Q: What sequence folds into this?
């Protein structure tokens, strides 16, 4: 026999005492003065033995905050008594692979993913409604004795404001949003109980619980007819092997999160008939491989998150490219490096992803401008986030890279969550046109439209260049001439120098050569201000782009490289 306080050996045994403790603790934090609680709750210890009343293989369990799946139940000689063999979600938590003294009791995917544990150390969890009551109400609201006290059992407890709290928290029927994250939910519970107690729930967070199968999820969802948002992330679920017969299990569901659930793409498609109006689907960190087109499912989807699925490539993306309403696609940390839309030649739009407006490709391996060129083929792309890619972390300054992306994707309105104002687009396109003017001429470009025939190689590398020439006129020879370094007068920039963090510092005005590197500018300022060079941070503002601050991040580049002009203002911080 083992004595364990509030340990979940068999589902339901610990719920009442735990619910009362949690509810009373909440009441205490909300102003109630409770006396006599400790002695009452401490009498709630339960006697457990080493027997289990139901099949536990495959059940999800929690042990001291760590989650695992039961893979074995039985005797492990030479030690007497019942043991559970569990495979931990965190493989570093275990000690072996399911073997003991040469006998294989169960198998793990990781050599240290398994452990043997006594049943009385394991929490098998609670049903959905019990978890709701534990978190939101005091189960079996206690009686008041009319003297400012409540009676729990036969113990009087003094209260202040307790009745109003009980009344407020007991209105389960009015709940529309609930969070049961990490509440050890393992099943729906009694049939119809959820629908009777909580008929109006619309949003549920069930992430990181002990649900072990999709059938358990269906049992819950079938009672929540108004459910619109459901988060099931971090539940290691087993999914049906055949298409679901209950195709409208989630008639109102619009947002579904299945991150870190172990779901496969085939299982997504099998379950998808049950999501007839789904708009957002989150599938991050599942080792997904997109193996087939969605046929007559996911057609209402507006957002799809495939982040941190390292096997996804452009060929798999083409399988989802014709989802008619897909507006947002999240591909962060999937390892993608290239993309090409084979149905569209340079200068034309692809039929793929017809509604895609927002694309996120952060933390990938994008290192070629050809990737950005291809994105201009998307019909509806208005927003792009592409931070932390090799292309954005090379020798070119971040601001120059931003200008090139803006110039290459004509319909883009937002880049890396920063709005592209008309003035910035104009400046970026003019700078891009000038930056590659000499290359354009060498490739066969000409100011005379009849003789302007750049070769295919140049057009492939700069597909919008000809369009920019039509928009702004072809670059003139005078624009493309490199200023002679000895003509110092033509290179001097008159700049104001301000110190945003030092209000007492006087604003300076200096003339600096356009060819002066940021490192030398810092050296000059360090001597003037008597501040170490390593502590100086430089940026600048231009009257042409009011309200926008541009960082001078690369010490080896010149002021001219950053398009600093006379009249601009250097901002110095330390």
A:
């Amino acid at each position: 026999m083992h004595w364990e306080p509030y340990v979940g050996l068999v589902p339901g045994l610990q719920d009442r005492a735990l619910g009362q403790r949690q509810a009373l603790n909440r009441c205490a934090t909300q102003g109630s003065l409770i006396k006599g609680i400790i002695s009452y709750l401490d009498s709630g210890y339960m006697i457990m033995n080493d027997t289990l009343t139901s099949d536990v293989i495959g059940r999800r369990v929690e042990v001291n905050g760590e989650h695992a799946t039961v893979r074995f139940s039985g005797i492990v000689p030479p030690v007497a008594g019942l043991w559970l063999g569990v495979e931990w979600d965190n493989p570093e938590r275990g000690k072996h692979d399911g073997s003991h003294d040469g006998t294989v009791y169960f198998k793990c995917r990781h050599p240290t993913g398994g452990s043997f544990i006594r049943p009385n150390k394991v929490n098998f969890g609670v049903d959905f409604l019990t978890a709701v009551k534990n978190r939101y109400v005091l189960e079996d609201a206690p009686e008041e004795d009319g003297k400012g006290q409540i009676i729990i059992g036969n113990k009087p407890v003094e209260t202040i404001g307790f009745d109003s709290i009980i009344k407020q928290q007991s209105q389960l029927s009015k709940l529309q949003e609930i969070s049961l994250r990490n509440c050890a939910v393992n099943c729906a519970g009694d049939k119809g109980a959820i629908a009777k107690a909580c008929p109006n729930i619309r949003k549920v967070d069930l992430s990181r619980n002990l649900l072990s199968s999709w059938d358990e999820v269906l049992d819950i969802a079938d009672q929540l007819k108004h459910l619109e948002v459901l988060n099931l992330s971090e539940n290691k679920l087993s999914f049906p092997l055949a298409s679901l017969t209950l195709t409208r299990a989630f008639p109102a569901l619009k947002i579904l999160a299945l991150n870190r659930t172990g779901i496969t793409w085939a299982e997504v498609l099998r379950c998808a008939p049950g999501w007839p109006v789904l708009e957002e689907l989150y599938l991050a960190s599942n080792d997904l491989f997109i193996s087939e087109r969605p046929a007559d499912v996911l057609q209402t989807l507006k957002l799809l998150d495939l982040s941190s699925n390292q096997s996804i490539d452009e060929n798999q993306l083409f399988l989802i490219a014709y989802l008619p309403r897909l507006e947002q696609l999240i591909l962060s940390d999937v390892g993608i490096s290239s993309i090409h839309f084979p149905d569209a030649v340079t200068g034309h739009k692809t039929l793929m992803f017809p509604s895609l407006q927002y694309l996120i490709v952060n933390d990938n391996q994008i290192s070629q401008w050809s990737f950005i060129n291809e994105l201009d083929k998307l019909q509806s792309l208005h927003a792009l986030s592409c931070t932390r890619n090799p292309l954005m972390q090379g020798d070119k300054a971040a601001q120059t890279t931003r200008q090139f992306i803006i110039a290459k994707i004509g319909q883009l309105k937002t880049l890396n969550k920063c709005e592209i104002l008309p003035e910035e687009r104009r400046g970026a396109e003019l700078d891009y046109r000038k930056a590659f003017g000499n290359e354009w001429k060498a490739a066969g470009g000409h100011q005379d439209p009849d003789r302007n025939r750049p070769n295919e190689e140049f057009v492939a590398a700069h597909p919008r260049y000809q369009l920019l020439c039509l928009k702004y006129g072809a670059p003139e020879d005078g624009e493309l001439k490199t200023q002679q370094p000895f003509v110092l007068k033509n290179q001097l920039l008159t700049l104001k120098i301000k110190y945003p963090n030092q209000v007492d510092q006087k604003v300076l005005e200096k003339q600096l050569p356009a060819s002066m590197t940021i490192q030398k500018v810092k050296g000059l300022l360090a001597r003037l201000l008597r501040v170490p060079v390593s502590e100086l941070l430089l940026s600048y503002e231009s009257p042409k782009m009011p309200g926008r601050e541009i960082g001078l991040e690369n010490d080896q580049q010149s002021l001219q490289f950053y398009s600093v002009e006379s009249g601009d203002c250097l901002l110095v911080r330390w």
